[in-house]
Amino acid sequence: MSEIPPCPECGSNYVYEDGPLLICPECAHEWAAADSAEKVYRDANGNVLKDGDMVTLIKDLKVKGTSKTVKVGTKVRINRLVDEDHDIDCKIDGIGAMKLKTEFVKKA
User: Fold this and answer.
1) pTM
2) What residue spans of the chain are helical by DSSP H?
3) Start and end of every Protein YjdM C-terminal domain (predicted)?
4) Beta bridge partners of 76
5) Is 29 helix (H, G, I), strand (E, B) or coil?
């Protein structure tokens, strides 16, 4: 078992692992573990995406379980990029929390 380093922001020793991330419960800082290879996320045009980037939808997307549709051109801020089927965690006005695939967005 590897030793977990202290938080780089506040120096707390109470850091814990959550998948590929290390999380500090005192200051809520999250960062990737040094030994994990970081996945590169790219939009439909091949631009590299990072947490906090603004993206624009390039296709109308139906919201599963409702009659709502998210229209082309809707701008969304990426909350977090995750290594799952849908890569982007975001919040869309009028819809709420949603997961998107990187193939349906372009960097704004």
Assistant:
1) 0.63
2) none
3) 42-108
4) 55
5) coil
